[in-house]
Each structure stands twice: as structure tokens, then as C-alpha cells.
Amino acid sequence: MTGIEDAESNRSRRRPRARGAELQYVPEDYFRPLVIADVFSREAWLEIDLGCGDGSFLVAMAQRHPDRNFLGTERLLGRVRSTCWKAGVAGVTNVRLLRVESAYAAQYLLPPASVSRFYVLFPDPWPKRRHWPRRLIQPGFLESCATSLVAGGDLCIKTDDADYFAYIEKRAAECPRFTRQAWDEEVACTDFERHYVAQGRVIQSLRLIRR
């Protein structure tokens, strides 16, 4: 090893890991379903925030419910690291982050009957009609969520976009594996929700129960 390489190696060993970095879970194989027991060190009710953004909702819910496991999916590395940092600062140990597209996670990575609840909070509405195929809420996505949910598990959705909400309602009505119920349970607010409420926007919600 050269002197330069030796110095770089020493700096690497001295460099501290970012707080909460251990909370990011990196699968050995992205082409096989996860083994949930490998993601969390305990068995517990599992809630998944699909597209967890800055992680404020995920961390707040983990603080409220230390008896549950919380997994957040997010494709952007900066957001994953930010959420891990927030969870580390908060001292919660029941949170894990998975850097992956939410639709891919639902379809390929989550085992059947392994999830108690999904959250999809303020997904991108893709308002132009030609962009609708890019929307997360699609028949195939709903089928994947239904397969991953335990019987009686639920998919909870919020949006401030009235057109997208009407679209979601239509897709949900076409999926026979869910029944619709009122979502009256109080949960933590996302930063998006606080922002939209402050602007006076109407927040609409939908809770779908796995048959």
C-alpha cells in the first residue's frame, strides 16, 4: 500500500457514520421478496409508508407506536439519508428505510400477507391526462398491495388533488379485493399536509380494507 493509499484508508476508518445510517436496509437481491425478519430484529405489526419523502410522518408514527415496525420506501438517496438522520436523532429503533421505487417494492419485494398497513400520502398527481399512466395508483398497484396485506389490513391514501382523488376512487371501486371504509383514525401529519392545510386546500382521504 502506498503512503497516499494508507492515508486514505486511515481517513476512511476515522470517518464516522452518519447518524441513523444503519437504519437503511439494502437487500442482497432486489429480484427476490424481502425476508421481513432480516429487515427488523423482531416480529411486529408492520406499517409501510410508500414514498416517505422527508420522513417526518414515518418518524413521528414510529415515536407514537414503538410496538410497531415502520418501513419507508423512497427512491431519492438524499431523502433516504435525511429520514435515517431524523430517526437517529429521535432515537427510534423501529424504523427502516428502503431505497427503491414504491411501485416496484409493492409488486416485487414485499412478501404475501406480510404488511398490516400501507400509507400513500400525497402522491404525485400527474395532472395531465397523457401522464396518468405514471400515477402510482393503478389497478396493478392495488392488486400488489392487496397481495402483500394481511386479511383485514388496510391501504390509507391522502391527497389534496380533487381530480386525482376521483381517479383513485374509480380505480379502487374496480378492485374487488378491497372494501372502502371511512378513515377516521388520527395519524401524524406530513409536511405536505401542513403546507396544504395552511393554504386552505381540502384534504381528501380513502381507506381500503383487504377482504
What would you note in describing this structure?
The protein is α/β, with parallel strands linked by helices and 211 residues long. The protein has helices spanning 3-14, 36-39, 56-64, 77-90, 102-109, 139-148, 162-173, 191-198, and strands spanning 46-50, 69-74, 95-99, 115-121, 149-159, 178-181, 204-210. The chain has one domain (3-210): Vaccinia Virus protein VP39 (Rossmann fold). It has a 7-stranded mixed sheet with strand order 3-2-1-4-5-7-6, with helices on both faces. Helix 4 (77-90) links the parallel strand 2 (69-74) and strand 3.
Task: Tell me the layout of helices and strands.
Layout: H1 3-14, H2 36-39, E1 46-50, H3 56-64, E2 69-74, H4 77-90, E3 95-99, H5 102-109, E4 115-121, H6 139-148, E5 149-159, H7 162-173, E6 178-181, H8 191-198, E7 204-210
Parallel strand pairs: 1-2, 1-4, 2-3, 4-5
Antiparallel strand pairs: 5-7, 6-7
Helix pairs in contact: 3-4, 5-6
Helix content: 25-40%
CATH topology name, in short, is Rossmann fold
For the biggest β-sheet, the strand order reads: 3-2-1-4-5-7-6
| Proportion in β-strands | 15-25%
Count of helical regions? 8
CATH fourth-tier homologous superfamily: Vaccinia Virus protein VP39
Average of pLDDT:
92
Number of domains: 1
Gross morphology = globular
Radius of gyration: 19 Å
Instruction: Please tally the β strands and state the result.
Output: 7
CATH architecture tag: 3-Layer(aba) Sandwich
List the helices and strands in order.
HHEHEHEHEHEHEHE
Instruction: Tell me the span between the first and last alpha carbons.
Output: 62 Å
Low-confidence stretches: 1-16
- Name the CATH class: Alpha Beta
Describe the sheet with the most strands: 7 strands, mixed
